[in-house]
Amino acid sequence: MATSDVGAVKRALFEDIDAERERLRTLARDIWDNPEVALRESESSERLQSVLREEGFEVEAGAGGIDTAFVARYGEEDPVVGTMGEYDALPGMSQRATAERDPVEPGAPGHGCGHNLFGVGSLGGALAVKRAIERGDLSGSVVFFGTPAEEAGGGKVYMVRDGAFDDVDAIVSWHPGWYNAPSKGSCLANDGFDFTFRGETSHAAAAPESGRSALDAVQLMNTGVEYMREHVPDAARIHYVVRNGGAAANVVPGEASVEYIVRAPEREEVERISEWVRDIAGAAATMTRTDLDATKTAGMYGVLPNHALADAVRENMDLVDFPLDDEQAAFAEDLRETLGDAEGALKQLPESEREAARESAMFSRPIDALDEGEVGSYSTDSGDVSWNVPLGRFTAATWVVGTPAHSWQAVAAGRDLGTVGMAFAAKTIAATLADLLGDDELRARARAEFEERSADHDYESPLPEDADPYELVSR
Ligand SMILES: [Zn+2]
């Protein structure tokens, strides 16, 4: 692709996405209207798959042993570029597209993380690139990865273990948020565990001497971990909940269980802390004469940033429009009223950008990465992808300024208002994938950076051996 052609190719990609705008909006709305939680997102997955099949993609479902995962590929040739889409909802987040708290159905799921937009935005980008390949504007192949169960267990980690991301040159992906910026940061690697202790039940008053309390073991374990906590690096996070503490105070609990998550910036650190936690669990069993069943339920890597790809994303953002209509702008203002003071959230922005974010409920002007050199206190299954293929990530503004993820305001914005940011994401993805297909040098730089950042650590799946996502997520 000669430099003079690049602009024309991108304009054609954007026109394609504009022509598809109604279809993409409808698709995102249909998934929003029928929110499905992790591993049960079958209709959402099917809706995306059927569009891709219709468009001539070769679609294979079931990657990583997850029925709702799929890989859709168009093209036979190298290079191969890809994007990812999520589509799972969150339990209990049901909310109408209104500027007041009002569930569609109390207790039902809802799209509190914007994954209906995430899936369809990425799909829009992949479709446009496919058309450009078809027209002969670009050469190579494009892959859309349908990645389920982000909110529970991390579907991508299973897909990585299955080799779904092998033989891809680079991936560009995004997540809904309230600003438009590439990401240059990392996040925390993690491990998840279930510790179940088994003792002996007995009458707590009449025969305590014949009981062995599993709850005592849980409490001693938690106390042990609290004493350990001072002696791990500051950035580490260890959290737990008691899943089962027994049934009645007058019965010595014969079974009790506690769920743990261990997080730290480096995978090795997570493993060191996890081993310590497991030792403490074993010691608690010894102290209480109970048996321990320790099960690792999840594991993830932190994200390897890729500045070459983030810079390409950032440049493309400047070419993309953000056409909010009057009704959407008014709804955004109403939603902002419900969020209270956004000053805390605005502190994430450089001072020079805060005024613009104060002025409008939708902050659409693209900005530079906010997280360069930082390790965010969160984990994502995109981390494992980033250790296997160069991954460019960004955030697009689908929510009102300051909206936290997993809030009802995020759900409310996701049915229509957020489709503007979704189209912005589709265009940014399409343009960056076009750069990757046409520019050997960009691909080489992204690859070299990936090799350099991953040089001191060989990726090994953090999942327990033979892990079955369905069994682990239901625990
Ligand atoms: Zn999310």
UniProtKB/TrEMBL annotation:
The protein, known as: Amidohydrolase
Record InterPro entries: Amidohydrolase (IPR017439), Aminobenzoyl-glu_utiliz_pB (IPR017145), Bact_exopeptidase_dim_dom (IPR036264), Peptidase_M20 (IPR002933), Peptidase_M20/M20A_hydrolases (IPR052030), Peptidase_M20_dimer (IPR011650)
Lineage: Archaea, Methanobacteriati, Methanobacteriota, Stenosarchaea group, Halobacteria
Positions of the Peptidase M20 dimerisation domain: 192-283
Disordered: annotated segments: 448-475
Native organism: Halogeometricum pallidum JCM 14848
GO cellular component: cytoplasm
PANTHER family: PEPTIDASE M20, XAA-ARG DIPEPTIDASE
Example GO BP: folic acid catabolic process
